[in-house]
Every structure is written in C-alpha cells, then in structure tokens.
Amino acid sequence: MASDTTSSTDVVVIGGGPAGSTVSTMLAQRGVKVRLFEREKFPRFHIGESLIPETYWVFHRLNMLPKMKASPFVKKHSVQFVNAIGRQSAPFYFDENKPGECSQTWQVIRSEFDTMMLDNAREHGVEVHQPARVLEVIFEGDRAVGVKVQKDGGGTEEVRAKVVVDASGQSTMLQNRLKLRQWDPVLNKGAIWTYWRGAYRDTGRDEGATLVVQTPNKHGWWWYIPQHDDTISVGVVAPFDYLFKGRGPHEQTYQEEINACPAIQERLASGTRATGYYATKDYSYRSSQVAGDGWVLIGDAFGFLDPLYSSGVLLALKSGELAADAIADGLTAGDTSAAQLGRWGEMFGKGVDRMRRLVCEYYDGFSFGKFVKTHPHLKGKVTDLLIGDLFDDHVDVVWEPLESLYPPEKKAIPAWSAGAPPEAADKVNELFLPPDPLR
C-alpha cells in the first residue's frame, strides 16, 4: 500500500534513546539534516542507571557536560565488590588511575537522563518526532532508502533518506528483519529489581559508588545503585532458569534472594520499598554486522551485553559517536556503502569483547581482590577496563596474568557466535513488568 505522503532528509534515525540521541546530535553538528522518530513519549522509564567514566568524552563532543554537571544526578567516583562470604573489596577509585574530572561520572535516573539527551539533540537542530512509530525500513534491493512512518491521527508517511540508522533498542528492527542476531552462548541471565527509600548509603566520596554483591551461592550478583531522588536501585541478576523456572512470583523470588544474602539484608534493613517489582531477561546478543548499504545499527539495536559492569550507556554513546563520524564522512564523499558506514565495526567489536571477557571471568569465579593482590602493578589496567577504556589494546596485558590464576580444570570461555536462541529468549514482553506508577 502506498504511503499518503512522501518527504526526504539526509539521515533517518529510528529511536531516541542515548544511542539515537548521540548519533543524531553529532550528525547535526556537522551540518547533516536528521529526522529522528521515537515511538514513546518522554519521559519514560528505563533501566540502565549507572554510567562509567569513559562516557565523559562523548558527553564532551555532545556539549552535554555542562548539563550533566548542573544536574542533580549522584556523582560516582568508584565501584566496589562484595564477595560471596561478604568480604568487601577496597574501592576502585577511577581518578587514582586517571586523575581529572574525566574520572568522575554519574548515577542517573534514565527517564530524566534520556529526556536531557533528546532535548540536546533538538537544540542542535535535529528534527525530533515523538511519539512516532516507524513501521518498516524501505529497501531497494539490498540498500536501505528510507522508512515508512505511522502519522499522528492516521495515515502513513514515506521518508526517503541516504542513510537509515537503527537505534530502536531491543526492538532490533533491522537485526530481526535481516536475521543478523548472534546469541551469546554463556551470558543468558535474568534480573528482578525494585527501588528502596531510606536504605543504607555511604557518605562523602563513596556516596555514589556502585556496589556489586556476589550472591552467597555464587549463582549471580546484586546491583546497589544510589540515586538522587532518595531511592536506591537494588536488583539481582542470575541465570534465567534459576530466577524464573519453578519459582514463585517475582516478589517472592526477590525476597528469597534477599534472605539468602546478609550483605544486602544489612543495607536494606533501614529502608522501605518505594515501587513495585520489575523483571526482564538479560540474554546477551549482537549483530553479525554493524552496517550495510545505506543502513547502520547502534546501541541495543546492534547488541546487548550483560549489565554487570554498567557498560550499556557507554556502548550506546560510543557506537553512536563512531557511526556518526562514518556517516558524515560518507555523505561528504558520496559513499554510503556498507564498508564506509561500518568502518568502525571491527574496533568496536574488540572493545565489546574485552568487556564481555571481564563479565564472563566474574561469573566464572574471578576475584578482583585476589588478582590485584597477586599482580598489584596491574590494578590500573583493571581499573581502565572498569571505567570503559575498552577500545585500545593496552588493556590486553591483563589477560595472560589472569589466566595464570586459572585452576587446571578451567576451560576457555566460549566465543560469541551465531546459534539458536536460548530457550525463552523471545519472551521478554511476557517477563517485563510495566513501569510502576509510583516510579
């Protein structure tokens, strides 16, 4: 069926989350005409609240730093780990490795942060449409040439573009259509979380620290993230089957996990629950390619990595930045081929692989404390990984010493490769609980 109206622009961006806001802002800064279509009306709830310091450099390019500094978001200077028997590591202070303001980051409430990012895109000249639903990406042969959009009040519009950027998040519009998804053979997790008011929080420099608490049975871990509205985000992550098969309602499972973890019990003793419960699957996946002729994938539309080290927003911002540079250069040269638009893919993939390995090592029993005690000269490199300095091979010096601590029976971590999706992997909509009205 033909569209009611037709228009054109240089670049269409599908999705207004951090990845879509980043790519569109940077393209607009270079004089590119961008139309962004976001299906939801902001502010809207989203998980993924803890940033890591390497986001600083993307914020700088986006002109977002003054806004972040003026925001009420809690400042984050470090991350700490608590092991299965309750022993707490010394904080990994980011500025001990890289002094300067670039080593301080934030704990954000995503409804507020994402709105700030999208407003920033508007201020830079991006034409933002929301709520606006992209029905499909239009192809001519193998080349993407635009999108079909559902218009307000009915009818459709065909928007022609030289490049289409899929930043649709876990909707993964193009990844699904082109059958590009590769499931991770190891990281098949789930999460249940809620928000607490009045629970314990550190003071001073440690007030905004992310705490990662290993469960006593070592099946998973807790996140503990302080936020500026007097709440703390507290969630448990564990294998999907362990959390969701053969157990009761999410509230019951969550409480059972609290009862089994003294380190979390102690911190929540003075608190009261402030919202309902949320649950989602955290199956890790990525696309087999980042771009094709006339199209690019960024953020969760390209891939999702286990949230253990809070890398999600960084990977969204970084992929948006790299894609924007490739697109702008390609438009200038008249080259919107897969090779040009995806020139950043190999480097980005190596960075994701570094973070993935650190995640897998943790689930396989890696102890930060033991490693640093055995190799104190490498604490800085481990901290580099934790702050998100993933796209430079200088951090690879940690892997051989890390392997030296392996027990004889340890096997290599399976590579991320294509395969059948994990059981129940497509049931995210059945598992995810709608945002609580109190939030």
Protein described:
Mean pLDDT is 91; it is low at 424-439. 31% of the residues lie in helices and 26% in strands. It has helices at residues 18-29, 55-62, 65-70, 110-123, 173-178, 240-244, 250-259, 262-268, 312-333, 338-341, 345-363, 368-374, 379-387, 399-403, 428-431, and strands at 5-14, 34-37, 74-76, 78-82, 92-93, 105-107, 127-129, 133-140, 143-150, 156-166, 181-197, 210-214, 221-226, 231-239, 272-273, 278-287, 291-292, 295-297, 303-304. The strands form 3 sheets. Strands 4, 5, 11, 12, 13, 14, 15, 16 and 19 form a 9-stranded mixed beta sheet that branches. Strands 1, 2, 7, 8, 9, 10, 17 and 18 form an 8-stranded mixed beta sheet that branches. A hairpin with a 6-residue loop joins strand 12 (210-214) and strand 13. The chain has a domain at 5-76 and 105-182 and 284-351: FAD/NAD(P)-binding domain. With 439 residues, it is of the alpha+beta class. It is built from 15 helices and 19 strands.
Task: Identify the notable features of this structure and list them briefly.
9-stranded mixed sheet; globular; 8-stranded mixed sheet; 26% strand; alpha+beta; 439 residues; 31% helix; FAD/NAD(P)-binding domain; disordered C terminus
Q: Which CATH architecture of the domain at 5-76 and 105-182 and 284-351?
A: 3-Layer(bba) Sandwich
Strand segment tally? 19
CATH class of the domain at 5-76 and 105-182 and 284-351: Alpha Beta
Name the helicity range. 25-40%
Task: Briefly note the CATH topology name of the domain at 5-76 and 105-182 and 284-351.
Answer: FAD/NAD(P)-binding domain
Q: Please describe the biggest sheet, giving its number of strands, its sense, and whether it closes into a barrel.
A: 9 strands, mixed
Helix- and strand-based class? alpha+beta
Q: Which whole number gives the mean pLDDT?
A: 91
User: For this structure, what is the CATH homologous superfamily of the domain at 5-76 and 105-182 and 284-351?
Assistant: FAD/NAD(P)-binding domain
Overall shape: it is globular
β-strand amount? 25-35%
Q: Span between N and C termini?
A: 41 Å
- From the alpha-carbon coordinates, what is the Rg to the nearest angstrom? 22 Å
Pick out the low-confidence regions. Answer: 424-439
User: Helical segment tally?
Assistant: 15
